[in-house]
Amino acid sequence: MCATCGCGEDAATVTLAGETHTHPHSHTHEHPHSHSHQAERQTITLEHRVLAKNDHLAEHNRQWLAERDILALNLTSSPGAGKTTLLERTIAEWDNRRPVAVIEGDQQTLLDAERIRATGCRAVQVNTGAGCHLDADMVGRALDALDPEPGTLLFIENVGNLVCPALFDLGERAMVVVISVTEGADKPLKYPHMFAAASLVVINKIDLLPYVHFDLDICAANARSVNPHVQTMPVSATTGQGIEPWLQWIAHSATTRI
What we know:
Elements: E1 12-16, E2 19-23, H1 36-67, E3 71-77, H2 83-93, E4 100-106, H3 111-117, E5 122-127, H4 136-146, E6 153-157, E7 174-180, H5 187-190, H6 192-197, E8 200-204, H7 216-226, E9 231-234, H8 243-253
Parallel strand pairs: 3-6, 3-7, 4-5, 4-6, 7-8, 8-9
Antiparallel strand pairs: 1-2
Helix pairs in contact: 1-4
């Protein structure tokens, strides 16, 4: 059981480029915990250890990426916000400015990696099993399998979840949160930790604005209320509207510290 979020990690399976690796996490206890405050202290201590270990591995990833001039962006969202469609559009419009590679994170299936590979882009799939987020160790092993060339633009598409990925540094240059206009403008207020960790909020599916009740200005204000420095960018991954500013943001990020 994950100490930071409660997601199940027993027998989690990570699939990298067709290889399957099983990592059982069996936590047994030889004595009962009769005091709730004792269990709480142990949970907090374990959480700190888990995050400290992850941060150490993330720093290793970050150094590895920096040595190769690889720009890594961590894409997070709730399920169905359109991350994979945004990546497909981005790859199509990128025009070979840098090589592109993708690490796909999902609990099961190779569907998203197959969609990305269909664009001609290199991709590996990380399947987390019952886990609800990627961590730095998973990304490190995915980098070993993918072996992106120097100068690559690397997208890490995280598991669809607006809670746990905010806690886990992967070694990326920046976190990008993708939300869609079908989700509601109050998302930043409901999930403040995720939006506080983001450098950019991409508001996707703006082609649906005539059919839903969504206010772009209110959403942007809500995002800034939890993160005064965050940028917001309306796009439609389906129609291509707003994609050019997104591509310019990526290109700028490759030459500056975010």
